[in-house]
Amino acid sequence: MHPDQLRKLISLSDCFAEVRYHKKKSRTISVRKGEVVEMSLRQLDGVSIRVLKNGTFGFASTSDMTDEGLARALKSAMEMARELQTRRLHPVTLAQANLARGTFATDGYQTLDQMPVEEKLGIVRKCEEDLRKSSHIQGAQCQYAEIFEEKHIVTTDGADCIVQIVRPELRFSAFAEEGGKMTSGFDSVGATGGWKCLFENRSIESYIETAAKSAVDLLGAPVAEGGKHTVILSPAMVGLLSHEAIGHTVEADFVKSGSVAQGKIGHMVASELVTLCDSGLSEFKDHAGGMLPVDDEGVVTGNTTIIDKGRLVSYLHNRQSAAEFGAAPTGNARAWEYSDEPLIRMRNTYVAPGSSELDHMIGEIKEGFYIDGPEGGQADATGEFMFGASRVRKIKNGKLEGMVQKVSVSGNAFEVLSSVDAVSRDFQWDLGSGHCGKGQPAKVDAGGPFIRCKVLIGGEQ
Fold it and tell me: 157 with 266, same domain?
């Protein structure tokens, strides 16, 4: 679609208008037990139009991208704003923002698009075959997914940009069996960029080995001792905690609804060793899976510090919430498809690295656990969380011992962060595969260093 069509459409509006053209192409290839179980390609494109008239938003979308079709959608958005005006208690205003102009393209868009699908299928087949080579592995699955996105965003107050993003990911699952007992192991990687960006930190063989070895090791692993323990959380677990249990509580729409972070700006909510951020950039390591140079309101993104040395200093905002809170927009407005309105969403959420060495952090623990292999879970607006973890090792007298069975990890996120007494120099993005859900999906990433803290472990009492 030519940007001039969007500029022409904007000129027809007698109030604030935001027009977003969004083209998306997604592919999934999945192989299980040597057979291709999915090979799909989905493509869609369309235009969304949002107007702000007399303090009320109106929204419409269309896949008819003729001038006539776009004009009809603009008219629908204007009518929606008029219809909703009588129901709005407080008029909407938008904060001034650093609006994007020009083209913003992430690495690898063209090269991954030109990579033959036969080559991608061959790699997925080989990965699944290699997963099944370990003894005791009875089955395996490997899945590859990629999303190409192109957006043109134009607003009446100055945004005029083109954004191109590609996000590939690989997921590895292995299933082991011995004496009637079955276990599973899992690993995954997701990035923003081309094929090579997936393996800048670890080789493809490393992901295969981790998934298969985890499944096999769990066959003979003992059950962990439950209770509150001193633990080392891996970058993946730190990322999960940062995103699910902290990040959602500081999204401004959740704050307005009464999350635990409401009224806490300026308060100490974590150890002084903890600085927690959300960024549209890829801090410390390249190609984080949630990179977003421009958000879906046309705002240039950057790095937002949420917790600065233990003190809560910012929420995450779109232009509307920023005006309500008297803050600057943070570039967190995101829409999954052209037919979706932008919501306040995270991008890349992380704890900043510290100054400790991992070996020293482990060496000071008399009895505890090393926790890795996040398996999802739940968190709520109070900061309470419960996550699963599949790669957990006992720590005894400063030494790592063997793997234990999968555990649950729970607590209050702010209390856990307040218990942090060591943060490593290491840093890793480690949650770039899969999606975040909040009314609509979003591609995000999360990570950090290793941290030492206290959490509640679910196991034998």
Answer: no
